[in-house]
Amino acid sequence: MQALRLSLLGPIEIEFQNRQFSGAPHDKGFMLLSYLAAESDRPHSREALAEMLWPDLPAERGRHNLRQTLFRLRSLLGNGAAGDFLETDRHRVWFNRHSDYRLDLDQFLHARDDDMESLLYRLGLYRGMFMEDLRNEAGEDFGLWLEERRARTHRLMLTMLEAACTRYESQNDPMAALRWAGRYVELAPWDEDGHRRLIRLLADNGQRGAAIAHYRAMAESLDRELGIAPSPESRRLLERIEQTATPQTDTRTRNPAWHGEHHAGLAHEYRQITVLRCGFAYQDIEDPEAFAEEVAEPIALAVRIIEEHNGWIAAARSTGILAYFGWPTADERAATHAVRAAIGVVNQVSDPIGRKLATGIHTGPIILTGETSRPDTIGMTTDIAVRLQVSARPGIIAISEATRRCIRDHFELTALPPLSMAEQKRPLSVWRVHRGSQGALMDGRAQKPPLIGRDAELECLLDDWEQAQSGRCTITVLVGDAGLGKTRLLQALHEKADRPLLRETYCDPLMQQTPYHPIMHFFRRHLDLPRHCPDTLVTRALSEHYAGFPNQGEAIIKPLQWLLARPSSPQEQDTNAHSGDGERHQLAEAVAALLETSAEATPLLLVIEDLHWADPSTLALLGYLATRLARARVHICLTMRSTACLPANLIDRARILQLRPLDLKSSLHLTQRIAPPDKTSGDFALVIAKQSEGNPLFIVELTHMLHDDALDDALPGKLQELISTRIEQAGADKPLLRAAAIIGREFSTAHLAGLLQLPEETVSAGLDRLTQRHLIDQPADDNEHYHFTHALVHQTTYQSATRSQRRALHQQYAALLQSENDPDAGAIAWHLTETGSYADAVGWWLKSGRDAAGMAAYVEATSHFERGLQLLEHSPERARLWSIELDLLINLAYPLAITQGYYGAKSERLYRRALEISKDHDVEPRQSLALLRSYWFGASSRKSFSESRLIAGRMIELAESVHANAFTALGHYLYGNASLWLGDFSLARDHLEETLSRMDRKDQETEQFLRNDQQFDVTATGYLGWNLWFLGHIDRSLRMTQRAVHMAETRHHPATLMAALATYIGTRIWCQRADEVAVAAKRLGALCREHGFRIWDDVAVLAEAWARTVNAGRCEPGGLDEAEETLHRVVTLWPGGATGFQYILLDACLFAADTTRGWRILSQAWTSMQATGSRAYHVGCKLAEARLLALEGQNHEHCLREAIEIAEQQQARSLEILAWGRLARHYAAHDIRLPEGIHERLIDMLDHCSGIELAPELAFIEKQLRGFA
Fold first, then answer.
1. 1187 and 1170, same domain (yes or no)
2. Among candidates 538, 562, 553, 535, which has minimal Cα distance to 593?
3. Distance CA 1010, CA 955 (A)
4. pLDDT at residue 1215, rounded to an integer
5. Are 40 and 97 in contact (CB under 8 A)?
6. Of 438, 473, 504, which marks where a domain is finished?
7. CA 302 to CA 324: how far, in whole Å?
8. H/E run at residue 555
9. What range(s) does the OmpR/PhoB-type domain occupy (predicted)?
């Protein structure tokens, strides 16, 4: 066996000396190893490898990473029998093809198919797509290589599958040909020839119903995805099959209304069955006729035994028997019956025939459609059973792992060697059945289960509750997998705390991108408001409930009205969407005030369940509450499966309680407490306790079935299987339950009745029966709404519906939502997406994204816009929907920029696509203007500010020509912005002032493409203030940047406040006002972390590091390491602003006397200036260079003179004064006086400045020049 084994066809598996490495798909080292092994025919340059794997890093940093990665790989792998696996020289790296290794790709691409065995071996190597689980965390070049390899191996696999089908057909083995034909269709669902071959093979193999069903599914897919009908050749094939097909007998009995003709599809379902195949090896058959006579009687006996155990005989030939258990009648003991039937056959069929029989049994899912006379039309579950039988020795009963999970503890088993199958990603675990065991099995039914084994967790909860009562808000997070008893633990807390004031809600997985969904859900339930109701009803309910609230009625009613009451018309909604920007903060404050005031009279328990499904806005609100309610008598209890999504400020204040499975003693105790009185014997309860694996919900669900006497001697192996079995017990009401699952975990009778087009009374009767089965539940005070008893019950029910059934119901429900007066855009978009109606869904994703952006929920907005674009990429109607795609691209630009970085690789790709559309189509002027805005983002962020200024000029011209006032003002702002960065401060002032004279906030809010952007009157104010500093108006600069922050605060628009704080900080860094910078930077960081603004969070880190260094005078060695790492990250995200960020750290290095780092940052700043044309910090960097030289005792006069010359050209009075002041100090140190003419010129310049005293260094220079120092 080779020392190193690399399996890349499918999920990446790397094994060295029988030890498998984990994390291979996410490790750059293993990516490098896989690439070199796959491309081992040539050496690779170090530069190319570094650029491919670390494209975003500087070249030297990339090569350093490459060296480190190669060193780590050699440390992990050592040497093979034939030397190192990796060979290197100074410039190249290559894989040693003579080393002791095995690569599946080599054998797959280069092996010969002279015989069937070789072909099957190659087919077995293809476990899936090449490097299937790899997340491309490298660059575009690696991604292109990966896609090329995937396409090449996929094409070759299809070619080999065709060869396998052809060979098996020529050998008259239709079962084998059918298996590979099915695999072909799975890999190439778009290939009609492949579908036609599969349909023909199904019919030839006696599965005519399955063939017809597959044709119909193919026809539906072609019509839906491509808008075409099957080819004439396919239709002729169907006609030939239908001529020989026998009609189905109508076996329907009296069923509820959801089984009627209008809901025939609801009867289709996934069902779990067990397949038994027993037979003889073909090599035992020398004379077929004689053999048939010999086995006729034993085969007939075996058939009778199987039928006695409730098996359904699908085929009984001389070579063996194929039988199904759990079909046509569902049987949750199907696996047990199948194994017992197999044991009966082995025991009762006499020798020598009995010794020659081998049996295979497998349990798996099938699709029941009612269109075929036998189950498993796809054949996968049956095929595994057949393979088990073929691989077993005569006289052996071999079962799969899936079957073992259903029968364990009932039979004596031993492990057999795993079975490798080409169709399976991993070898199949196989077990041998010896005989039935004598152990007892038990069932039970629970009422409300007692709390067992959670004393420590309950004590922690009570302790936190006691602290909350004393006036300190406490937060407890219960973390654990589904079913571990998180909700039951909170129920116990509520009981032990004497039922305090309770406020509770939950998060819905379907609403993860709907802003504030848990909050909306709570208030609608609390106020008894239907989901969709008139604004007047919302206003009346809020007024009646909160008008008398102590001192805060209006402050609470207004934001809640914004949250709950939607505009009555689309036009009104569009007009008012921007107003949501400021309401986020007011909403958070209103919720906090309600909780705080309610808790003044009596301590309050706030419960939010399933927080792992929370939307980002709700998480941000919780983070706010954690700080805001620090001294309130509130105990916040959260349940979730993982803490990964929790805000950091919430984690810091919370007690995390990780729930573990119960131990066996507690499980047994719980089982005995809730089981029926006649089924609590030690052995019987012990079986339940063991099988529960410590999951309380498993025990509860199992005992529910015990009360119904639903189990005899079969236990599902896992919770998911148990719930599936319970869902099966819903019987005739299963279609109703599946329809409810399509709506969501919570649903209303009215919506479900509307979906099924049935009277509410009829639907209510079925829901009552499902409630009695403990599958759904209803709040005690609500006769209209229901919810699934657990998220897993909902999930399992949803997945039991067939794909076509789910699509049809999603389509119907989406239509129902669209017919309402106030349609929920996000819900409609999601349901249409699930139907595959991408062309219809994208418009709703656009609308829901705009709704989210209107609430300043930019994370959710980005998700919605990107979802729409993803759907368009897979839609055959993409060309027709170019206008919607362009709107999606334009609307996405701003949310994407502030959440993921200004004009990164993704933004560049999206902009290029938008540009393609605009060139190919006659776009509206405002779309062109919005596209110019996106283009300006790219030019100013990644290219040059000169180009961005030209773009702004074009925007002004176009906007004026179409009288787009808001875009005209925006063009002047963008022109002034670019001019400032170019160091053209006078021109920047003119355009920024023009912006403020033209910009009308109402104009911006009425522009569809600007409504959810930052508010440019505020941003322009901040930029003008920043620009005035350079022009020497220090007092006006500080006032205007302060004013910009105040304006943004009153608007409550986080992105605008972020921009205002940035200009505020930039101005005060020039003025060396470290304390003010520290406060603003801390605030900026908190704002960015709350709303997911990546870039400016890093800027806040840099500013805080600057303030700390200035206040301290120096810093510890390495004290600026973190800041430098942050600088590298932010420069990568926004190269256009690099010089500004680099100057902040450069100035900190000067205060810290860290010259080594200072020279490094200065070098990077010169590079950035050259790349982008930015000159705003040119003088600042020259002054910094002079200080670095001075710190090292070198002459720096030439740097100061260059700084003076540049500042004079830029008309930057403040910078020129700084440069002359430092040169004057240099002269004074060498007893040289400034020339009189220069002195007079500087005095005149100071006279034209204002507020010099507000900037310490400028004030000192003025005193020197005026003779006061």
1. no
2. 553
3. 14
4. 95
5. yes
6. 438
7. 14
8. helix 553-564
9. 23-95
Bridge partners (DSSP) listed for residue 605: 502, 635
What 3-state DSSP class applies to 142? helix
Planar angle of CA 1115, 1125, 1180, nearest 5 degrees: 65
User: 1174 and 1136 in contact (C-beta within 8 Å)?
Assistant: yes
Distance of CA 619 to the CA centre of its chain: 16
Do residue 638 and residue 627 come from a single domain? yes
Put simply, whether the predicted model's pTM sits higher than 0.90 gets the answer: no
Total domain count for the chain? 8
* Helix, strand, coil percentages for the chain (3-state, nearest 5): 65, 10, 25
Round to whole Å and give the CA distance between 277 and 385.
6
Angle at 801 between CA 795 and CA 804, to 5 degrees: 130
Residue 1146's pLDDT is 95
What pairs with residue 748 in β-bridges? 785
Record the tokens describing residue 602, joined without a space: 């009596």
Q: Which amino acid is at 768?
A: D
Asked whether 1031 and 989 are in contact (CB, 8 A), the reply is yes
- DSSP secondary-structure letter at 1117? T
DSSP code, position 174: H
Per DSSP, 26 falls in state G
- All residues at 6 or more sequence positions from 625 whose CB lies less than 8 Å from its CB, including other chains: 588, 591, 592, 595, 636
Q: Mean pLDDT lowest for which of 791-795, 832-836, 991-995?
A: 791-795
For residue 340, give the nearest of 399, 286, 288, 283 by alpha carbon.
399
* 82 and 109 assigned to the same domain: yes
- Which CA distances in Å does 433 have to 331, 338, 408, 493? 21, 12, 10, 48
What is the average pLDDT across 837-851?
A: 92
Domain that holds residue 462: 455-658
Kindly state the percentage of the chain with pLDDT values over 90. 35
Q: Taking the mean position of all CA atoms in its chain, how far away is CA 456?
A: 34
Distance CA 20, CA 12 (A): 11
Model confidence at 439: pLDDT above 50 = no
Residues 323 and 429 placed together within one structural domain of the fold:
yes
**Of residues 269, 1177, 1248, 353, the one with CA closest to residue 796:** 269
Distance CA 824, CA 851 (A): 10
User: pLDDT tens, 517-576?
Assistant: 899 889 988 888 865 577 888 888 888 888 777 666 778 888 898 888 754 333 343 434
CATH of the domain at 420: 3.30.70.1230
283 and 432 housed in the same domain: yes
Residues 997-1055 have pLDDT tens digits of 988 777 666 666 677 678 889 999 999 999 999 999 999 999 999 999 999 999 888 88
Backbone phi and psi for residue 428, each to the nearest 5 degrees, phi listed first: -90, 125
- In the predicted model, what is the mean pLDDT of residues 414-441? 76
Residues 148, 285, single domain; the answer is no
Q: Dump the DSSP string for 177-229.
A: HHHHHHHHHHH-TT-HHHHHHHHHHHHHTT-HHHHHHHHHHHHHHHHHHHS-P
C-beta separation of 795 from 814 below 8 A: no
* Across 340-354, 955-969, 1137-1151, least confident range: 340-354
The predicted structure's pLDDT at residue 968: 92
DSSP string, 929-943: HHHHHHHHHHHHHHS
If pLDDT is split at 50, 70 and 90, which confidence band does 648 have?
A: low
Q: How far is CA 385 from the centre of its chain?
A: 37
Q: Are 1099 and 1149 members of one domain?
A: yes
The pLDDT, as a whole number, for residue 250 is: 36
pLDDT, the chain, mean: 83
CA dihedral 884, 889, 895, 896 (to 10 degrees): 140
Instruction: Tell which of 1176, 1191, 1218 closes a domain.
Output: 1176
Distance CA 443, CA 678 (A): 10
The yes-or-no verdict on residue 252 having pLDDT over 60 is no
Same domain, 291 and 428: yes
Q: For residue range 116-170, list pLDDT tens digits in order.
A: 778 888 887 887 888 877 766 667 888 889 889 999 999 999 999 999 888 888 7
